[in-house]
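Quick illustration, no need to memorize.
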Amino acid sequence: MEVLKGILFGISLWGWLFLTGWAGRIRVWFVPLVTAAGLSLILYGGGLFGFLAETAVLLCAAGLAGTVLSFWGAVTRRFVLPKLSMFGFFFGAASVSFAVLIWNLKLLHYDNFSHWAVAVKYMLSTDHFADASTELLMFKDYPPGSAVWIYYICRFAGHSQGMMLLAHNSLIFSCFFAVFGWVRERRRFLLYAFLGMGCSMLSYLNLTIRINNLLVDFLLPLLTMAGISMAYRMREEPIKMSVCVMLLTGYTGIIKDTGAVFAGIIFLYYVRCICSLPVRYMPFEKKLRAFRHLPVKSVLILLTAAGGALPYIGWKWYLATALAGYTGKFSVGAAQSAAEPELYGTIIGEFFRSAFSLTERSFQVFLLCTISTVGAVLYARIFLKRRWKLWKIWLLGTAVLAVYYAGILLLYLYSMPAEEAVRLAGFDRYTCSIMTLFAGLLLMGAETDMEASFAVSIDERGAYRAYSSPEAKRRYQATVLVMMIVGINFLYSEFNGLADIRKDYQDSLPGRVEKIIGDRWYPGGREDAARYLVAALNEEEQVSDGEALYVCRYFLYAPHVQVTSRVDAETLEEAGERYDYILVLDEEAVTYDPDFPETERLKAPGLYDVQDLLYSYQKSTRHRIK
């Protein structure tokens, strides 16, 4: 039955891709992302009003109808599949290779179990968003943007961690595919090779979490790059551009709290495209008689802004109603444990040391981008006699970096709990996220400059006349080869890194927990009401940082979990009133007591019934008395 559901869902998804590309007349580069964003927003709207499951079923049925329509279009020859290009072949091969690997991966990063994976598991179990009565989700105010897409796929295709990762990474691959839509001269494979090399190098900024997790720090900048690419290629189709940008900004704004910043960047570029649009591309102006007293461009901008902001406003409404009174972790002035003024100096000093440290990947990439930008602009001016505009993107990107870094610092000073602020919790992820956007926009800008710098343009006579000399053609081919080798090397390194992670999963904390208790799913979304005590060593701060707690809560699907690094006879004597089960992860966390022989039983990792332990102890005590 599960296999049949998965097959039907795949057919339904094809129907939606067809409807977006054929009925919506969207370029093939942007079809997957526009489809995912549109379906996610519809699901999100259904979830806000308590109809998440019903909305998912209706969308799946509509997709099946779209598939039937695509067959009809193929038979009547009104619909023809795009031709497979060389770039399409390489991108498809890379996507399939990573998809096969991702299917066999497991969740690892700490924040999967503190929120992201828990949110998906909760939605799949209950078919609704978290409300005030939800105990399992600790950060209920986080918007569920990416989670609703993962929910939609997993609801029909299976609940495994591999399927969750595939669903999440389908968004990432869709973003990369949309970025390649930036290229206008499709017959210059060098341009695709350059963008491919740059995009593969962006994986260096994602080494902390990689793609075997559901975290969105890498997804947000990719959505922004994809949105800018979309607006750039649709700038001569203002209505279509406005609709697509509205969908993408609306979706980006509900991915995470900081998603509003990235959505704002997309919108600002859209405004630039609209404002610079010549009048000849606005033939519909006479048709909008209701707005004849207003400039049409202003109307489009206002409508797009309102539509893009609506999902974010909807989430704020949901927080004010379904989660009334809930105070989020990062609410300004709400955190009782926020840093005191005497700690500001320490936090600011550590922040600037980290921001400009050569050991930080974000600063390394900034220096590399700066040096590369200066070198590329000088080379183009001296040797190619061209004035590249890449330096303008660098200046604008640096200004965005400064503002974003200032926002991170304010987060540490006023919103984050003091214990986390002092050690700059999440600094690497936050900075690498915005640096991915910085580097990505420079790549896209460099591609545009390169596209305008060829000595010979490809005209209707064909690509064989596209080189000024045989020597130029050899240099072109050598450059393509070098770029492909560099790009494939980075992809291969990422692939091997993920394969090694999969191989070592059994020795990780999630792997050891899953081996003992499995991954529990209860019918009807019922949470496990039992009380658990987890015994684990505080290696790598897994107890003090809460990692062991969150991992166990996820796999047990139980909100009442406590973790300790020491279990002794006294703990067991009190356990009867406080706990139902003891979960031992590390035998060294149990202290043997000869007067309490049951402590010897706890030396083996496993799950133990507290009442059974106490009964055994009482029985052995009576035996010794006799």
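Strands lie at 532-535, 561-564, 581-584, 606-609.
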